[in-house]
Design goal:
Blueprint lengths: L2 H18 L2 H7 L17 E2 L9 E3 L1 H5 L4 H17 L2 E5 L5 H16 L2 H5 L10 E4 L14 E8 L13 H25 L6 H4 L6 E8 L9 E6 L5 E6 L5 E5 L2 E4 L7 E5 L1 H6 L9 E4 L6 E8 L30 H11 L13
Parallel strand pairs: 1-10, 2-3
Antiparallel strand pairs: 3-11, 4-5, 5-6, 6-13, 7-12, 8-11, 8-13, 9-10, 9-12
Length: about 350
């Protein structure tokens, strides 16, 4: 009996925050010095690594992009990617072919969108998953144990060609340009990942892994009490592959051997990580690793995560462990599911600190 009034008051608090349509930035603009309790997180049990030797691999793609003829160089890069996906689930890529000017312009546009007049933004605030452009704060506002200190806009960039009119003018052109560049990079990464699994370069692409692209553009305002909350709760990604652009502030941490490792920003680099679906179809060969973003007194921190996934728009296509990787010694560890079903389960569960993959284990 005793918990219901508490739950009701929590729900009302969340609803009130949601209805402001001003997001976390609205709280900061109002000059708060203490963060609301709905953002308070339980302490994390994992320690932070003080081992400076731990750093996620940085892989230079210059030779693959410039010259695909030299197979020995390509094999070296494939081997590094294989190792990174099996042990870390994360790596950074440099010389990836996307111009620095495009990366800088994208970060600027995300900042401009979130810092424009609140009345303009309110008109775009929505929780309607069918829209091509969705701006809100905390997608799991009514299901997560505590809210995250960030605002986000999300847009679909593929498989359907976006209608430019669906995107705000302030970031329309650069989002469309970045989407094209990212599809090219994604195609290359899936070729290298296919080879890392000992398969034909087109294998993952032919399965539809590179078909959909969703951009999540995050804005983490400065936080007056960063020790009480987080920018993004510990989670793994509900996609095939994520390519992340982060700014110079940092705060991203990867859980490696039960310790939090800082992912230090490398100028011009993009961070690549294995998603839950890639772990599922590779039958645990590649690891979808949990990660989080710390809140920070400094800000805003800007990041753009590109998810290779069709999200809610996916077909009835079923995905399970790839037959080519299975054997008597390595039977399937997961049941089949569609992308849409998995994403719906993931979103309903919210960022509660547990992996959605466990639900699909055989």
């Amino acid at each position: 009996m005793g918990t219901k009034p508490i739950f009701d008051s929590m729900l009302n608090e969340r609803k009130a925050f949601d209805e402001t349509k001003a997001g976390v930035k609205g709280l900061v603009d109002a000059g708060i010095t203490k963060i609301p309790t709905l953002f308070h997180h339980q302490p994390d049990n994992y320690q932070k690594s003080n081992n400076i030797n731990h750093a996620i691999p940085v892989i230079d793609l210059v030779d693959v992009i410039d010259n695909k003829q030299d197979s020995s160089i390509q094999q070296g890069i494939v081997h590094k990617i294989k190792e990174a996906c099996e042990t870390w689930g994360f790596f950074q890529v440099v010389n990836h072919g996307i111009p620095l000017t495009v990366l800088e312009e994208l970060k600027d546009c995300v900042k401009r969108f979130h810092e424009q007049d609140i009345e303009i933004k309110k008109g775009m605030y929505t929780r309607d998953q069918d829209k091509s452009f969705i701006y809100n704060s905390n997608f799991d506002i009514y299901s997560s144990p505590a809210l995250n200190w960030r605002d986000t806009f999300m847009c679909y960039l593929a498989p359907d060609t976006p209608n430019p009119q669906d995107f705000p003018l302030v970031c329309r052109d650069i989002l469309l340009e970045y989407g094209k560049q990212m599809m090219n990079l994604g195609t290359l990464l899936f070729e290298l990942l296919s080879e890392a699994l000992g398969l034909n370069p087109n294998h993952l692409k032919d399965m539809g892994c590179a078909e959909g692209l969703i951009a999540l553009c995050h804005y983490y305002p400065p936080c007056p009490q960063p020790e009480l909350t987080v920018g993004t709760t510990k989670h793994s990604d509900n996609d095939f592959l994520t390519v992340l652009l982060q700014d110079h502030i940092g705060g991203l941490q990867v859980l490696h051997q039960d310790k939090w490792i800082d992912v230090k920003p490398v100028p011009g680099a993009l961070i690549v990580n294995v998603g839950d679906f890639l772990q599922l179809i590779t039958n645990d060969r590649f690891k979808s690793v949990e990660h989080r973003v710390l809140a920070n007194r400094v800000g805003p921190r800007i990041s753009v995560a590109c998810f290779f996934s069709t999200g809610f728009r996916s077909s009835s296509k079923l995905y399970g462990p790839m037959k080519e990787l299975l054997s008597e010694e390595n039977p399937p560890k997961y049941r089949e599911t569609t992308v849409a079903e998995y994403v719906a389960y993931f979103n309903a569960k919210g960022l509660d600190g547990t992996s959605a993959l466990a639900h699909y284990r055989i």
